[in-house]
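Appendix C reproduces, verbatim, an entry submitted by the partner laboratory led by Prof. M.T., so that reviewers can inspect both the input and the predicted structure.
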Amino acid sequence: MSSFIKDLKEDINSVFDRDPAARTFFEIITTYPGVHALIFHRLSHALYKQDLKWLARVLSNIVRWYTGIEIHPGAKIGRRFFIDHGTGIVIGETAEIGDDVTLYHGVTLGGTTWSKGKRHPTLENNVVIGAGAKVLGPITIKAGGRVGSNAVVTKDVPEGATVVGVPGRVIEVTADEKNSQRAKTAKKMGFDAYGVAQDAPDPVATAINCMLDHIHVMDEKMERMCKSLKALDAELDDIYIPKLGDLEIQTESSHVDPARAESAQVEPINEESTQQDIDSDQKSEKTSTENP
């Protein structure tokens, strides 16, 4: 009984640490469905371990009806577990959850097979799963891992990594002084709102920007090759290629330099002037060929 009271106090304190809306102990114990679900899960889990599985399932079903949170009595949950909002959360039988873990509404810790045995995820300490995320299969989210809202994760997540998207992709957050301070605060509290920092980059935009950088390099190399071949009196057809400019996919998290953004604007192509440039280049090429 003393262990149960100790765990309850820790659970209540974790709510104060991670929910700015929490005001009093009485308010939390009477109005937070996540706390209710956790309290009754500890009771149903004890029944489950005593081989009173039917009674444990009945209790968990009653709690699901009351809170909107479904936790199988066989799931193993650590200390200071926090469920924010809670509606729609599903935690499977063989799921294992470490200490100081945070789950938001709509999260599923589900299985991908009908076979018995370990088929649900393992969340290590200080993991945050954002709203609507699906973590599926017997995978492991390493300590400090973050899963963004609505992500679908079916592979292991490295320690301290952030995963977003469908399917889940690991992203790298640019580190600066402000981000470092946020990370230290989050690590101290075991908390990141909805599993993703506000400055998390878009992995699709990052991939496109990498491709654009590669195209710029290839374009520059091609220009050098053409100049070298012309220097050797090679006959090459001049083909007009519009300038790429300093293109970049901007996201809310990327820093926009006004001067750079102005230079990146692509001016509309004047078809008449473009044709004149092509004709001029062809005439000069023809002249150089006739008069070596």
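The helical segments are 2-18, 25-31, 33-49, 53-67, 177-189, 203-231, 258-263, 271-290. Additional entries are available on request from the coordinating office.
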